[in-house]
């Protein structure tokens, strides 16, 4: 299944809202996938992201295989580490943590990933990943040993996003962090969207339909939901097609 990025750019007519469900292999059991996807498949979800900051080796591949048994939605890796790369997925967000200054997450891990990616027939989507402070430390911060950007430093956030685009990245991901206390502010979303010519993903701490709508209204092309679903499997009842 190639063409994931093309579909994001074109967005199906009449549906300009893309919703990714983030499944963290560290928090989701393979045995639960069938049940979870009964709910996800009848919801407005359009993409499945799979990944986490700290995931045991081989867990991701098992989970991806199981997920693909129960859905036709594109399954896209959102890896916290090279060990999470598997050719069983349809695509991968090839993430550069451009809010940070740790060379491992700007180029080091990418070099390590090359031999796995060269053999895998999956769509690689270069993505500039920007972590924004949310009121508590996130696992991305801890694992990557980088500082998030200050929430009120709009100029720096905008310049960072634009620099990502100018470097050739195909998507920008504004991230407040999993389970964030404060989701990314709608003013930041709209100001970043205004200067970008590539699609914008927004995630972290989004827990209600109202917050999802507000992110779309501000300019998010894809909204990511992880924790809200992990904590309440009925959350997707509210998001029925
Ligand atoms: C985390 O943006 C994703 O990387 C989703 O965040 O778990 O808070 O929904 P939540």
| Class from secondary-structure proportions | alpha/beta
Largest sheet features: 8 strands, parallel, barrel
Low-confidence stretches: none
How many H/I helical runs? 9
- The CATH topology is given as TIM Barrel
**Bound ligands, each once:** SN-glycerol-1-phosphate
Give the second-level CATH assignment, the architecture.
Alpha-Beta Barrel
The ordered string of helix (H) and strand (E) elements is HEHEHEEHEHHEHEHEH
Summary of the model, kept short:
With 241 residues, the protein is of the alpha/beta class. It has helices at 4-10, 33-41, 59-70, 103-119, 139-144, 154-166, 186-195, 209-218, 227-231; strands spanning 18-23, 47-50, 75-77, 91-97, 123-131, 171-175, 200-203, 222-225.
Written description of the protein model:
- The chain has a single domain (4-236), classed as TIM Barrel (Alpha-Beta Barrel).
- 37% of the residues lie in helices and 17% in strands.
- It contains 9 helices and 8 strands.
- The chain has helices spanning 4-10, 33-41, 59-70, 103-119, 139-144, 154-166, 186-195, 209-218, 227-231; strands at residues 18-23, 47-50, 75-77, 91-97, 123-131, 171-175, 200-203, 222-225.
- The chain has an 8-stranded parallel barrel with strand order 1-2-3-4-5-6-7-8, surrounded by 6 helices.
- Helix 7 (186-195) links the parallel strand 6 (171-175) and strand 7.
- The longest helix has 17 residues, at 103-119.
- Bound molecules: SN-glycerol-1-phosphate.
């Amino acid at each position: 299944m190639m063409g994931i990025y093309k579909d994001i750019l074109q967005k199906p007519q009449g549906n300009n809202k893309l919703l990714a469900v983030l499944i963290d292999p560290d928090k989701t059991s393979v045995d639960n996938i069938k049940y979870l996807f009964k709910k996800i498949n009848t919801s407005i979800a359009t993409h499945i992201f799979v990944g986490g900051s700290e995931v045991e080796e081989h867990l991701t591949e098992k989970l991806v295989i199981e997920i693909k048994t129960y859905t036709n939605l594109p399954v896209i890796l959102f890896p916290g580490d090279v060990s999470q790369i598997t050719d069983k997925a349809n695509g991968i967000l090839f993430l550069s943590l451009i809010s940070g200054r740790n060379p491992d997450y700007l180029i080091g891990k990418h070099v390590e990933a090359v031999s796995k990616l060269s053999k895998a027939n999956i769509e690689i989507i270069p993505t500039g990943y920007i972590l924004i402070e949310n009121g508590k430390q996130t696992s991305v911060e801890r694992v990557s040993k980088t500082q998030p950007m200050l929430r009120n430093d709009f100029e720096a956030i905008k310049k960072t996003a634009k620099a990502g685009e100018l470097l050739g990245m195909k998507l920008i991901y504004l991230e407040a962090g999993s389970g964030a206390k404060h989701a990314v502010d709608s003013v930041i979303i709209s100001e970043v969207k205004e200067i970008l010519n590539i699609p914008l993903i927004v995630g972290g701490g989004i827990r209600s339909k109202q917050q999802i709508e507000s992110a779309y209204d501000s300019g998010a092309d894809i909204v990511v939901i992880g924790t809200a679903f992990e904590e309440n499997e009925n959350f997707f009842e509210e998001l029925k097609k």
